Amino acid sequence: MFAPIRPLNRRTANAASKLAKVAHPGVDREEEESEAVTRVISESIAVHGTPEAVWAVAGDPGAIGEWVPALAESSYGDGERVCTTGDGAEIRERVLEHSDAEQSYTYEIVASPLPLRSYRSTLSVHGHGDHSHVTWEARFEALEEGQEPELEAMFSELYRDGLASLRERVEGAAFA
C-alpha cells in the first residue's frame, strides 16, 4: 500500500524540482550498455537512537516515502519498490539484498526518468549503544558524459535531506 501523500513543503518542493530537472524520458536501465565513469557518493548522519529504533523506520523499503522529503509516496512488494516523486515521476527499483540482522539493504534503479545507465545504492545502520550512524551510499553512471556533476549534487542533497528527516523522525519519537 502507498504511504499517504504529504503536502509539499519548501524542502520537499526543492528536492522534487531538482529530480524533475535532471529527468530523461523513460529510459529502461536494464537495456543500457555502459562505458561511462562510475561515480560514488556517500552521506552519513548520527542519530540519537538505538540501532533497532532507527532500523524500525529505515529498514522497511516500502516506507521510504514517509521520511524522504522528495518522495510523495512509495510501495514495496515482490522485491520491487516503486517511488513517486512530488512532481509525479515514477522510479522503479529492485531490492537486491535486505538483512534485518545486518541492518542494511541494497537496491538498484531499473526504470526511471533520470538520465542514468546504472544506479546501485545501500542504506545501512550501525549502532553504538543509544546512538547510531546511518550511511546511504550509491554507485551510478550517468546516461551521457557531463551529467555526472548535476546527478551527484542531486543525489547528495536527496540523501542529506532524507537522512535529516529520518533523524528528526527517530529522535522525535524517542522524546515524545
UniProtKB/TrEMBL annotation:
UniProt xrefs under Gene3D superfamilies: 3.30.530.20
Highest rank taxon of the organism: Bacteria
InterPro entries found in the cross-reference section: Polyketide_cyclase/dehydratase, START-like_dom_sf
CDD domains: PYR_PYL_RCAR_like
Transmembrane portions of the chain: none
Protein name per UniProt: Polyketide cyclase/dehydrase-related protein
